[in-house]
Write a structure and sequence with these properties.
By secondary structure, the protein is mainly beta. It is about 10% helix and about 55% strand.
Length: about 210
């Protein structure tokens, strides 16, 4: 019941973050600039560094737990930025794999179990915002190592990622953001597990520095 409650709360928070760009875009002045670089109180630069901290929800053979990430952003156009990064998910190590009646290996880990380490390449698009707030959407593809040490289970996932968030400038070069993203894709494991679906939801806050 506790895990279900956490998952529901995370889903509500993720929906709010993901819908924020749409709402802000719909309410924004259509003649406003799409790039924060055009603001007089934001330093002009085509490069940024970002650090994130939050939580990820997984389950079965998708890791969940504490989420830590970093990204490098490079401006490609007024709205679009390259977004490449490295992230880690640290969950508990409880064993949860067993053999069913047919002799097949089955894993049923909780939403905050396991470890994941990922390299991802993607794009971020900013939309017109209001004041210091700028909504954005993000899509990426990742290469992810997944491990459950207590079960001696490890594998490789290739998730597609989609999400978004809203950031706010707090100084000429520094902004903070709230974001959520969904990971969906295939994964391949040892221990006779073979191919399995990979599904996770990450919710995190970020601090971003314009170089």
């Amino acid at each position: 019941m506790h895990g279900t409650g956490v998952a529901r709360l995370a889903g509500v928070l993720a929906a709010a973050v993901l819908l924020a760009p749409v709402v802000a875009w719909a309410e924004a002045d259509p003649d406003s600039s799409a790039s924060s670089a055009g603001r007089s109180d934001v330093a002009a630069s085509d490069q940024e560094l970002s650090g994130s901290l939050g939580a990820e929800l997984g389950g079965r053979v998708s890791p969940g737990g504490l989420y830590v990430g970093g990204a490098y952003l490079y401006q490609l156009s007024d709205r679009d930025w390259f977004d490449g990064g490295l992230s880690f998910t640290f969950g508990s190590g409880a064993a949860a794999c067993f053999q069913d009646r047919e002799g097949d290996t089955v894993c049923d880990h909780g939403v905050t179990d396991g470890f994941g380490g990922e390299v991802a390449l993607g794009m971020r698009r900013y939309f017109p915002g209001q004041g210091r707030f700028t909504p954005y959407a993000r899509v990426a593809v990742g290469l992810r190592l997944v491990s459950y040490g207590a079960d001696d289970v490890s594998g490789l996932a290739i998730p597609l990622e989609a999400g978004g968030g809203v950031r706010a400038w707090i100084s000429e070069r520094v902004s903070i953001a709230g974001a959520a993203e969904l990971r969906v894709g295939p994964a391949w494991f040892n221990s006779d597990l073979g191919s399995e679906p990979h599904l996770g939801l990450a919710i995190h806050a970020a601090a971003e520095l314009r170089l």
